[in-house]
Design brief:
By secondary structure, the chain is of the alpha/beta class. The chain has a five-stranded parallel β-sheet, with helices on both faces.
């Protein structure tokens, strides 16, 4: 983690006492398109909440003993999606975690059901933001084409209603500094936790 990221985390910790409410929150699942920042935000959020951070794609790779492009090449997208659903069933059953999911996780109904086991944050990112953040990433099989922007646009239009369906919280990315975005997420989580606390004491 860079010095700048550490400074961001330290400042938000002082201003937002999220750790006081963390025990009231269920597991948190991050969804959104490629390049939305699910892994980056997930790591920061896990640090604030003092929780383990897990990444579904990393979990799939570890279980398979191979990276995502290899799985796509050998098993096709359908084979990968089968692995992804098994991973989601396992990971979403864990308590008090922060989980970053793959961009296409919402396309399967069973995965959308698994996501109901926790609190879902949808990190929304424009196609231009996605292109900017993924243009040098060779670990995304669906973008290894002559026109990755067209692929991203198609995927975004198809998946957007599904992201919106599963989301408990929606945060736009790409227009704010990490500090501002984290402050926004923490504000919403604190309000969510306070509501739970009030229900328990009423």
């Amino acid at each position: 983690m860079s010095i700048e990221e550490s400074a961001v985390i330290e400042e938000v910790f002082v201003q937002k006492p999220i750790h006081h409410y963390a025990h009231l929150l269920p597991s948190i699942f991050l969804v959104g398109p490629m390049g939305a920042g699910k892994t980056t935000v997930g790591k920061l959020l896990a640090k604030h909440l003092k929780r383990p951070f897990l990444d579904a794609d990393w979990h799939i790779s570890e279980k398979a003993g191979a990276d995502i492009p290899w799985i796509f090449q050998k098993e096709g997208e359908s084979g990968f999606r089968e692995r992804e659903s098994r991973a989601m069933d396992e990971l979403s059953a864990m308590s008090s975690i922060v989980l970053a999911t793959g961009g296409g996780v919402v396309e399967r109904e069973c995965n959308r059901e698994y996501l109901k086991r926790g609190l879902v944050i949808f990190l929304d990112a424009s196609v231009d933001t996605q292109i900017h953040r993924t243009k040098k990433d060779k670990n995304r099989p669906l973008l290894q084409t002559d026109n990755p922007k067209a692929v991203l646009e198609t995927l975004y239009q198809r998946r957007l209603p599904l992201y919106q369906e599963v989301a408990d919280i929606t945060v736009a990315t790409g227009r704010a500094y990490p500090k501002q975005m984290m402050a926004e997420i923490l504000d919403v989580l604190i309000a969510y936790a306070k509501n739970i606390e009030n229900q328990q004491t009423s």
